[in-house]
Amino acid sequence: MLKAFKNKKAVSPLIATILLIAFAVALGAVVMSWGMNVKPLIEKPDIEKCSDVSLEVQKIKDIPQAFYGGSGPGGLIKFTIANTGSYDIDGIILWIIGEEDTYIIDLKQSSIKVGYPLIKEIQYNFNVYGEVKKLKFIPKIKIDDLVVTCAKSSLEEERISPVS
Amino acid sequence: MDKGIQEAKKEVERDNFSDEIKLQLEEKGHLTSDIENAISTYSKKVKFNKRSFESKEVKRIFWKELFDRIGYGFSSQQFINILFFQTGASYFVIGAINGLRVILSVLITSFLGEYSKIRKISKRFIGTTGILFGLCFIFMAIARLFHSVPLFALALLIGSIGAVSYGDLYQSIFRNALKKERIHFLRNIAQYGLIITGISIIIASLLMDKFPATGTPVSLFGLEFRIFGYLIAFEIAAISFIVSGYVLSFIKEKQIKIIEKRSPLTQLKIQLESLKDSLPVFIKNKAIVVLVIASIITGFVQTLGNSYYGIYIYETFKYSYFGGFMNVGIVFLIAILTSFFAPFIVKQNSKEYGKFPMLVFGTLLMAIMPLTYYYNPNLVSISMGTLLGVIGAAITGVAHGLLTADLMSEKERKVYFSEYSFLIIIPYLIIMPIGAYAAQAYGLRTLFLLLGLILTLIVVPLYFLIIILHNKKEKI
Asked: Any alpha helices (H) in B146-228, and if so which ranges?
């Protein structure tokens, strides 16, 4: 009996490797599934986070920096908006409300960090949508990996001037 | 008789007294009792003087260590990367600059290591690099304030040069300045220093969360100004390193004999020539070639991952858990505390399982870290993944060292370690930008998946290949 304990042989490298690989895989599986149900400690409800979002059309000499130009299918809309809230904006949905119809566009590359502006120029078809009456900017934010649209924090601008 | 005492005193003061000298003095006609009296009187004095000198040195080194640890905590690499990102740097720029920083660091470490063997590098130079290192943090804070990416990148690169020169060369002074038993005592202080670094990380996180980058308006004595948390944290880091560099100037160093007068450029040429000579020897041994490739890839994964882990945690959880910087601080505090006991785990297991299995196991543990960031991005699992990654890196490091001892002769090993830094330059210059581009083009999560897969599907098989090559060689 005692002899069996005394004749302790080392584990062969191959078996040791296989054992350790199995252990590492098991460990990895545990860690990668660990805490999936743990709720973040200070996570606010999504709606509450939207209240931290605020947009503003930039003004120069009291003139809002929202312009239209061109004609027919070659029209354009130009604007400068700023993130004046305390939460980074992940993207913007823009409504261009025309006399005939509303043009809705999910703006690409439109994330705005807190305190930063966004300057954009968008193509607009006057023949289809008519003269521009109003611009509506709806911010989208990212909470963890979820994109939330903050419709209530939208910004509207009716003072749209022709490009000089 | 007086002369005998004087001679004995001189020899004792020089720490040079031996039985031979005692005999010589006796032959000169001095009384044995006089000589012994002189020895006992003066050796006590000399011992006392030495002890008080050493305790002063210990105190100085203690303060220097303390300030260093505070500095390292307030200027944690992850915070630097987050602030670099906030300055406006793209993922590509962050990855590329971090890659360049690593190349510079290993090059300078290797160069200074070899150069300091033949020429004494002045303490003033080391102290100045410490001060320069500290000033770099002030420049980084200014760059963040004015959103200047080039200034931030420049400060980061110069800072890394300062960090290496300062850190590595200080270690040699540290070893020379004290007796072995004292070094052991101070090593303990250095280990406890990890706790100081950890506390500093948490304070820095609190400061940066409390006073965000937009600036907190404060009114003091009728003056209104804005407070920026990162500015305070980096100021503390800068002051700590500057003070530490100043304390270093008081530490006495032993004189190193100058073997040869060489300019730094000549030294570099000699090292490159030595690489030229030793390269064919390494290339002949396929196992060494595969080992170098595996360690370059592992290093690449670590460097690239470390460039983005902090940014990813900050950006993903900035509105949840403990808030922005604190989340990052806590995850890396766990990593620091793990590195405290990781060597113990490694020593225990490497004896039990052997180097090859430990190498594979360590690499797999390292792979769990980026894979967790990809598959389960929540703070709990990310913390656990980071913990395993740190243990894995320690295991791989030790097993790698044991393996090189097995594959190479002592002479080859010395050349390998001194020339390794030159070997990695070209591969790093190619693969680091590619990795940084992948981060920019496909996002951080995809990059983490890629890094995990590289470790499991490329590095682990490479280690198996080394086992096969090694076994073949042994059979021959």
From this structure: 149-177, 180-210
